[in-house]
Amino acid sequence: MTSQGKKPKSLEQGAVRKVVLTALSNDGYYVESFSLHSRFDHPERHLSIDDILNGLKIEWRGCKVDEFNDEEWQWKYLIKTADIEGFPLVIVVALDPKNNRFTVVTSFYDD
Description:
Blueprint: H1 13-25, H2 36-40, H3 49-57, E1 62-69, E2 74-82, E3 88-96, E4 101-109
Antiparallel strand pairs: 1-2, 2-3, 3-4
């Protein structure tokens, strides 16, 4: 979590991608990077962790600021990407750039 105080500025796509890729390169960290909601609440979406990891590692179609979470003191970002089979996918991440960490909040197929 980012330190509280003055609200941090949101990041551009390149900076978001750098934090995500740095966190993923930290051996095994990604296992802890999924909220319970993203892992268990929507089995009907048929999204695996591998689909989400693929979407985070490949070139993104876009990334924009979603909202600021005052409780966690983090910006959330909406990442447009694709699953393993190339189907359009949206992944929402909460970012902790100070510690090069993120949490997948939710993900869903992009219509």
